[in-house]
Amino acid sequence: MSTSLPLVFDAPRRGMPPRHLADLDAAGRKEAVQELGLPAFRADQLARQYYGRLVADPQQMTDLPAALREQVGQALFPPLLTPVRDIACDDGTTRKTLWRAGDGTLLESVLMRYTDRATLCISSQAGCGMACPFCATGQGGLQRNLSTGEIVDQVRAAAAAMRDGELPGGPGRLSNVVFMGMGEPLANYKRVVAAVRRITDPAPNGLGLSRRSVTVSTVGLAPAIRRLADEDLGVTLAVSLHTPDDELRDTLVPVNNRWPVSEVLDAARYYADRSGRRVSIEYALIRDVNDQPWRADMLGKKLHKALGPLVHVNVIPLNPTPGSEWDAAPKPVEREFVRRVEAAGVACTVRDTRGREIAAACGQLAAEEA
């Protein structure tokens, strides 16, 4: 298996869209409006429209003089994402959106409404360079990183959809965001961290979601996990482990050739200690591949030793892609796997699976469109 994986956490800005308000922090917004010859208070005004009222089109910003709207729009609100199509299931409470960026790049997000919350799964890259063989996105390769604005605008659009009652159940509020869509978030490190700040900072600096309601997922870029811990963001870390042994993980998650299981768990422990938050371990259960009872025992033992009570395992029934050799483990095997992990003193649950009939696995819809 090739180990030709990225050596850096942030690729060049190749193919990125023009600067957008959501790319900028408070100081950057003030500088940007001053470059336009506008008074500094306009920066706060524009941010309140975008983050507070969820308006992305200056033509709809009624407190902005009409004569300024076109100029502001061109400079700070370039079109980022255009919906190509929406498909829904679960009686309309799960909606997957295929977006097209300005350069034609395709990406996906999934909005899921539950009785007690609304969760958005967002993409941080178009495609993915991690090459995990059971993942549709990984098999398609990496097109490019998404900009901070492109990441944040997925969240703004979903927040507006919830506010406007576009999903069954009437008007509501977006409560949770998970970076579990297309891409490896920590391979687009700086823009993802900036996006997390925009998502969690209160208006006018951001969308005001609780930090505890944001989850950043990674396949295990150990140095970046430690770097993220030092940001003190307070978000949940999810590690896509998928198997506790290096021999299999070298194949399932090729980045393991660089940072093996022990290094990933050491980094996860560092994150847990710095944040005080439990780390989530993601485990896609694949029939006859990683679902053996001895692997459940090994997983529980390693996690209990490395993280103690600061860990929770999410067992994910695999959502197979069309034509794939991979399939989900049978339910009795799944139940026995969970039982054995719990017997080792590690909390373990099976994730609620949604969207199987709408190609909700990462990358499936974009691959179909392409």
From TrEMBL:
The record's listing under PANTHER family reads: 23S RRNA METHYLTRANSFERASE, RADICAL SAM CORE DOMAIN-CONTAINING PROTEIN
Record keywords, A-Z: 4Fe-4S, Cytoplasm, Disulfide bond, Iron, Iron-sulfur, Metal-binding, Methyltransferase, rRNA processing, S-adenosyl-L-methionine, Transferase, tRNA processing
GO annotation terms (biological process): rRNA base methylation; tRNA methylation
Mind naming one GO cellular-component term on file for this protein?
A: cytoplasm
Official protein name in the record:
Probable dual-specificity RNA methyltransferase RlmN
Q: What is its EC number?
A: 2.1.1.192
Q: Name one GO molecular function term.
A: tRNA binding
Higher taxonomy: Bacteria, Bacillati, Actinomycetota, Actinomycetes, Mycobacteriales
Task: Mention any additional remark.
Answer: Reaction proceeds by a ping-pong mechanism involving intermediate methylation of a conserved cysteine residue.
Cite the Radical SAM core domain residue spans from the record.
114-357
Task: Please give the cofactor(s) recorded in the UniProt entry for this protein.
Answer: [4Fe-4S] cluster
List the catalytic activities from the record. Answer: adenosine(2503) in 23S rRNA + 2 reduced [2Fe-2S]-[ferredoxin] + 2 S-adenosyl-L-methionine = 2-methyladenosine(2503) in 23S rRNA + 5'-deoxyadenosine + L-methionine + 2 oxidized [2Fe-2S]-[ferredoxin] + S-adenosyl-L-homocysteine; adenosine(37) in tRNA + 2 reduced [2Fe-2S]-[ferredoxin] + 2 S-adenosyl-L-methionine = 2-methyladenosine(37) in tRNA + 5'-deoxyadenosine + L-methionine + 2 oxidized [2Fe-2S]-[ferredoxin] + S-adenosyl-L-homocysteine
Q: Which domain of life is it from?
A: Bacteria
Where found in the cell?
Cytoplasm
Residues that hold S-adenosyl-L-methionine according to the record: 183-184, 217, 240-242, 319
Cofactor annotation comment: Binds 1 [4Fe-4S] cluster. The cluster is coordinated with 3 cysteines and an exchangeable S-adenosyl-L-methionine.
Q: What family does this chain come from, according to its entry?
A: Belongs to the radical SAM superfamily. RlmN family.
In the UniProt entry, which residues are flagged as the active site? 108 (proton acceptor), 362 (s-methylcysteine intermediate)
Q: What does this protein do?
A: Specifically methylates position 2 of adenine 2503 in 23S rRNA and position 2 of adenine 37 in tRNAs.
Q: Where along this sequence does the record place binding of [4Fe-4S] cluster?
A: 128, 132, 135
The record, for Gene3D superfamilies, names: 1.10.150.530, Aldolase class I
